[in-house]
Amino acid sequence: MKAIECRGLTKKYGTQTALDDLSFVIEKNKFYGLLGRNGAGKTTLLHILNGELSQSSGTILVDGEAPYENRNALQKVCFIKEGQSFKKVARVEDVCLVASIFYPNWDQDFAEELLETFNLNLKKSVKELSKGMESALGVTVGLASRAPITIFDEPYIGMDAVARQKFYDLLLEEYTECPRTFILSTHLIDEVSKLFEEVIMIDQGKLLLHKNVEQLREEAFYLSGEIKAVESIGANKKIISKEIFGQSNTLGVYGRLSDEERKKAIQLNVSIEHMPLQKLMIYLTSLKEKEKHKDAKH
Ligand SMILES: Nc1ncnc2c1ncn2[C@@H]1O[C@H](COP(=O)(O)OP(=O)(O)OP(=O)(O)O)[C@@H](O)[C@H]1O
């Protein structure tokens, strides 16, 4: 079942192309990580998804409807942005009241439970909150909205490591108890990658990768061992990184190993290790950059 569908989605700001012919499907009740370097186009995509921006061309459907200025579609989406700017004079309870009016599935008891967890007082005004506390208020709204599509775009600005961990634990608990579509856009990839079921990577407005995380675990790995042995296993594979330490070599590989190749790796004392998502993104985006420079030279 589709929660979101993009076809040829393109967004231009004047001559700047922020999204370039993006096509993908986000399925219902799955947890997505939206990843990409600064300026990749993530926020632009999320603003279009949330009906705040219109695309230059292509289509986007949220639960089958175009989201731009469409209240019906938007009630299904709760979008918590980086540095969410709630009205400074509003009290925490006012923020919850407004959210309860907008989101049909709002759960006030859950909201109050979360506020207590984050030590937020209902009577405090937003201007009295620290940066991290304001982010915790955003996280509370996102979770208690119980919106079928809940999106967090770097929602933890100012939250310390303990508060962030609390947020990830709550997110996992909520996803397990009350499944819905979650999209988390983040630069702290390895902190949260355990939550993701699918990963969408964007680079310079284009889709770089859309994969199931389990599949990625099998397809992105390091081979380490004696130089010749490692190179024989990595031959004919897409090599995305290479490090040589004396007589040993570590290759970052993006591809699949057959059972035969795995057996051979054991025989040759070549270790196979999972590559963290953050590293994979760094390698893939820098490879793209190198390819672009090469094309520009020719
Ligand atoms: N309002 C705007 N006017 C002109 N250009 C814009 C505007 N908003 C974004 N851009 C450009 O569009 C591109 C994508 O920006 P966007 O904010 O979507 O990236 P992002 O992936 O969210 O980046 P970050 O991780 O830094 O938040 C960038 O090149 C940016 O300079």
Automatic annotation (TrEMBL):
Coiled-coil positions: none
Xref: Pfam families: ABC_tran (PF00005)
CDD domains associated with the record: ABC_DR_subfamily_A (cd03230)
Domain of life of the native organism: Bacteria
Lineage, broadest ranks: Bacteria, Bacillati, Bacillota, Bacilli, Bacillales
GO MF entry, a single one: ATP binding
Keywords: ATP-binding, Nucleotide-binding
Every ABC transporter domain range: 4-229
Protein name per its UniProtKB record: ABC-2 type transport system ATP-binding protein
Keyword ATP-binding: yes
Listed InterPro entries: AAA+_ATPase, ABC_transporter-like_ATP-bd, P-loop_NTPase
